[in-house]
Amino acid sequence: MPRYNPAEIEPKWQAYWDDHATFRCPEMPEGEKLYVLDMFPYPSGAGLHVGHPEGYTATDIVCRAARMQGKTVLHPMGYDAFGLPAEEHAIRTNTPPRQSTEANIENFTRQLKMLGFSYDWSRMIATTDREYFKWTQWIFLLIYDTWFDTDQQRGRAIDELPIPTEIEAQGADAVRRYQDSFRLAYQADSLVNWCSKLGTVLANEEVIDGRSEVGGHPVQRIPLRQWMLRITAYADRLLDDLEPLDWPVGIKKLQQDWIGRSRGAEVDFFCGPSAQYAAWTTQRKSAGFPREQDEHSLRVYTTRPDTLFGATYMVIAPEHRMVSQLTALEQADAVKRYVESASFKSDRDRTEGNRKKTGVFTGSFAINPVTQKPIPIWIADYVLAGYGTGAIMAVPAHDQRDFEFAELFGLPIVEVVRPTEVINETEKKCFSGEGVAIASGRFDGMKTSEVKQAIAAELHTAGLGKPATNTKLRDWLFSRQRFWGEPFPILNELDDEGQPNGLRRPVDLAELPVDLPELEDFKPHGRPEPPLMKADDDWLYVQIDGKRYQRETNTMPQWAGSCWYYLRYIDPHNSEQLIAPEKEAAWMPVDLYVGGAEHAVLHLMYSRFWHKVLFDRGVVQQAEPFRKLINQGMILGEVEYTAFQNLTGTFVSTAEAIKQEDGTYKHKSDNSELTQVSVDESLITKQGDAFVLTSDANVKIDARSFKMSKSRGNVVNPDEVVQQYGADALRLYEMFMGPLEATKPWSMTGVNGVKNFLDRLWRLIVDERSEASILHEQIVDRACNADENRVIHTAIQAVSHDIASLGFNTAIARLMETVNFFTKQTERPRSAMETLVLLLSPFAPHIAEELWRLLGHPETLAYEPWPVFDPDAIRADTIEVPIQINGKLRAKMMIDANANAAAMESQAMQDVRITELLVGKTIVKKIIVPGRMVNLVIK
Ligand code: ANZ
């Protein structure tokens, strides 16, 4: 063996850890606990990507070090296994998605084990396990059973919802419908992104530029009956509870922006027949602002009620329910065409700032309640149906979108706010800041904030307005028309004709899980209706107490399973409860959660929301699940070097190449034809931060790395890296590339570099010349001398500190220095080698275990005490420095090696040999070089 051979060592130690259940975590913490969580992967057919081991190695290092520091570590892994790719595979091959999912899980598990991560595999879960999604369904029913009490700001059981007497009087079904309208899980007609090609409704984030993210098919917006989760009820708490979390500020900001809380007012504008205007205002004055707008009014949400005098037109969203009511006959065709075209645009397309505004006049007018003037009502897609009330009062002088729209369609622009400070040119056209009211009647001269208050109060007394807050956050569209997802544990009651009557019944808890039906055929049928409608009648229909029900055939979105997996790891085999309360109390919250920044918003928002419902309903005991969060940076493909080449093969810098209209390139001075070529690294020299051709330094080489992708062919496969260099080298390299949170390019040369380091470490301890694995002859059984001790303790201090602060790259650099130091020594004390191996073990556990064994320890090092840092060992030694007078050596003194100039001077002045020589003289100059010498110039 003697040469370092990871292919032999690594599988051996992986088997050892498996056989000995080395990383099995006890049910309850013994002493201090540490719960370290990785974002679990979707087990795709492509297998692990090198991006996965980045975060996974980081957490593994933390866990391995923490075990050695005596903590009880919970470090689990599992799979987020429902999802579109498995379903598409099933459609293509007509095999059940469970088959491919299980095969992929097996492959992922093999790969993760191959990398030596110290997971407690006995806790492995997949969201597709029946024993797992039973509890996902259970949580759904809990959410369904909950309403949000806005006064108490918490979710409560639905049977605690106060029922108004008039509802009570209408009987049991009316009460059920009333309750249904308050549940956190409810059904609503919602505008959805319908993709007929995929045969499913997609979430907004699955739609990119009006096309499906998967497959790039056209997406149309249509109304459909959907399950919604009332996450908006929790908006305030989701915002307020962010603050104390130890999360990157960027992520907190993203969540705040996503929730997007704004405060303003709702205002009703009269839009009925003018003959009824007077009666309407009188009625409003006495009755006040109604909960729902009446048939003669159009309700808007505004953050600037102070600009009401400048509202010169109104806009409703193309999907607004009053579109047909407000459309005049002569405008009907134009409106129909406009509404149809808007249905193909995503919200993003509609609201992006630089798009040209579009719209159509309805032919109707509303009355501005303060100016009493009629103003036209338009339809435009820059107003979104799902925000506020889906209608606005447009104030073109003070809102940029309204301004662009008014300019385009020649609508009046009336300035009502004058800035109090100097403004720039664009603001002169449309000033959206605060200032002083003008052209606003009795409010003229008042400050914006005062006008806001005053107009809002007037509208309130007139029964025309009320304060309102809004969030950008929408309720969560929670159903999918797919088959590879969790079925909803809900039964829809059927009437005598076999049609759903709108009443529902949760599946009894004892009946969970509701398993997916066996399907003969997985092809979508291209209708919004879910594929589970194709299931056998045995599955589809249920009879209870003489009533017939049809099972809910929608399935949950992939987000569902990942909303709570961190809880199940704590008690994965509990068949009675989602989690035992004492275990939840002992292990939660997650102390460190590491994963990609792409989950900054949705996954983290959704899981925080579920956690809060579980908290309100007493299932968990803390309001937030993830105490500390870190996002690993993206790993890009290898740097690609490019330049241009002319027809004779001469290289030319990119700056010389001019792109032609047809996409080809020509030389900027001689007009010769150029083509972009990649340049081999061996032909390049680095000059400062730039790269040039070694043979011609005038030719600059572009160096760029790109996101790994199949189409670019720059994907690095972890299997191949492990085969060639070993898992320890891969782990070490990924941590050595740079700070965990940085984006960084892959480099095989870099992998080779760390592999060389591991070779050196091996040779430091093992005698390579021998046949059997024996220790190097320079390993000696003596205590470390002061030098060796200083090097070792410097390493202990640095590595311990760096692991705690997740600065893995600098820890590795320190370990490399330590190895270099001992390589140069003729003797290597066994104790120093042992410490070195222990310090390295979290990073490169296989080689560390092997060396630990060779150093004479039969047991795993996984629970060896972490080396203890001794500050005395690195305390600087004393050194001898000369004291000169006028350049002549007069004395020597022993001094602390780190002493500064002042300390050196003061010690020198106390030396009797010097004080004698100074009698009667004056010092004209002191030359003091710390650590080197003192020279006094005297007269
Ligand atoms: C009049 C006005 C005057 C407005 C003014 C702004 C400036 P935030 O802060 O994002 O909540 N708005 C309301 N509902 C809308 C919808 N469904 N689609 C598009 N825009 C909508 O923005 C609230 C402001 O956005 C509201 O205040 C409204 O325009 C517009 F000088 O009302 B404002």
Features of the shown structure:
single chain; 939 residues; alpha+beta; eight-stranded antiparallel sheet; 33% helix; binds ligand ANZ
What does this protein structure show overall?
The chain has 939 residues and is an alpha+beta fold. It contains 31 helices and 43 strands. A hairpin with a 5-residue loop joins strand 22 and strand 23 (500-506). The longest helix is centred in the last third of the chain and has 19 residues, at 786-804. It is globular. The N and C termini lie far apart (73 Å). The site of ligand ANZ has 19 residues, from strand 12, strand 13 and strand 17. Ligand ANZ binds at residues 262, 264, 301-304, 307, 383-384, 387-388, 390, 392-393, 395, 398-399, 432, 470.
Global outline: globular
Distance between the termini: 73 Å
Poorly predicted tracts of residues: none
Taken as a percent bin, the fraction of beta residues is 15-25%
Précis, in short:
33% of the residues lie in helices and 22% in strands. With 939 residues, the protein is α+β, with helices and mostly antiparallel strands.
